[in-house]
Design goal:
7-stranded mixed sheet
């Protein structure tokens, strides 16, 4: 049985940074087990392939958990400036956009993976990487962990679970890490997809597939006859044959609960009264204008036709009959309702909502139940908003765990 001081299960964002940091701190006999044939597959696709590694506004308000536990303290291990400085010390250059999203200057997520991988190659004498090897089981026997894979059996003093969640299983994140954590006594909360496309009723989507618009999307919960706003975001909304996608929708999906609805404001910079006046003035100047041409140059043509259908306005309506519907049309431009029926599942999600309970780990992601066990990134019951928050969480947890392992190792010598 092969012996190591530390075994890291998972060669994604959190596992790679943990291994890199351990190497830099002089820790030897580290093994990274990665089931894929290459490191950082999901990391290399983050930020639509552009590598959104963090956000300039990192704070706990952008994260969700059923029990926040030490979430705030863990985030203090590495703020966004420190994370950027760390990656720049590895040879990268990083820039923030107008929304605070931080990308490599190359705008290639794979280049982030590359500088971590290349950095680890410099420590090949202290850190081994085994690709295409799947961890099947783990157990604690006295002071040692036993790790069984599909190729070998290992023992180690420190075990790091950095296996990822259930989202985007085509990257190898099949949720097996939760099973490993549970086998060591940890509790896993309900798991759900997040940062994912939203499925809605189909009738309001007719004729809109493939249309992309800049609008404000508001998630609401009905209480009697009242609609209570939960959250809203301005950004792209892409219509699909099953619902809606796009940046604003992904951001809203983090707040999604059963019974929610979504309203779209197609002209978020213009008040409803102004829109109504513009429409009335247009009819007064062009009294023969038919409904099918009425909203041209005001909203997207396909969106205009959908609004008219929702208002039950025939395409050939004109004159007084069309004027009578102006108020209703203006209201639908500002509030286009979509009943939510679900999401498109883990296969299309960016992150997992839920995981190992936060009250079972400490401020360095160390297990409170099993000595020398560490649980990182998406495996924990923490998910963030869209915009670099989830990748920052992965990196920070890897950094925190590595520092804790090194400190304990030095205390033992």
């Amino acid at each position: 049985m092969k012996q190591f001081r530390t075994i890291i299960i998972g060669g994604g964002a959190s596992g790679l940074l943990c291994a890199m940091r351990l190497s830099q701190l002089g820790m030897r006999e580290t093994l990274v087990l990665e089931k894929n044939e290459r490191l950082g597959r999901k990391l290399s696709a983050t930020g639509n392939g552009q590598g959104n590694i963090t956000n300039t506004d990192i704070n706990a308000e952008h994260y969700f958990s059923s029990d926040r536990g030490p979430l705030d303290t863990i985030l203090q291990n590495m703020n966004s400036a420190q994370l950027i400085a760390y990656f720049e010390s590895l040879g990268g250059l990083f820039l923030a956009d107008g929304l605070g999203r931080v990308y490599p200057a190359s705008r290639q997520a794979a280049s982030v993976t590359d500088i971590l991988r290349e950095g680890l190659e410099e420590y090949a004498n202290s850190t081994q990487i085994h690709l295409g090897e799947t961890a099947l089981s783990v157990e604690k026997k006295g002071p040692q962990f036993k790790v069984k894979t599909d190729a070998e059996d290992y023992e180690c003093k420190n075990l790091v679970l950095a296996c990822g969640g259930k989202a985007s299983p085509h990257f190898g994140t099949d949720g097996s890490g939760y099973f490993l954590a549970q086998s060591l006594g940890h509790t896993v909360t309900r798991l759900r997809p997040s940062l994912v496309q939203v499925k809605t009723e189909r009738e309001p989507l007719k004729g809109l597939k493939g249309v992309r618009v800049d609008c404000r999307a508001t998630l609401y919960q009905e209480s009697g006859r009242e609609k209570i706003s939960v959250k809203n975001f301005r950004g792209d909304v892409l219509f699909t044959d099953y619902g809606i996608s796009g940046d604003a929708v992904f951001r809203l999906s983090a707040f999604l609960e059963q019974g929610n609805g979504i309203e779209l404001d197609f002209l978020p910079d213009i008040r409803e009264e102004k829109i109504e006046k513009v429409l009335k003035d247009k009819l007064a100047a062009h009294p023969e204008l038919s409904a099918e041409d009425f909203l041209r140059c005001i909203v997207n043509s396909s969106v205009g036709r959908a609004i008219l259908r929702m208002c039950n306005v025939p395409p050939q309506s004109k004159g007084a009959s069309l004027l009578a519907q102006v108020g209703k049309i203006a209201a639908r431009i500002k509030r286009y309702p979509l009943r939510v029926i679900g999401d498109s599942g883990f296969a299309n999600a960016q992150v997992t909502k839920g995981g190992v309970r936060m009250n079972e780990v400490d401020a360095h992601c160390g297990s409170k139940l099993v000595k020398n066990l560490y649980l990182l990134g998406e495996l924990l019951d923490v998910d963030g908003e869209c915009g670099g928050y989830n990748l920052h969480w992965a990196f920070t947890t890897g950094y925190a765990a590595a520092n804790a392992i090194a400190a304990e190792e030095k205390n033992d010598t």
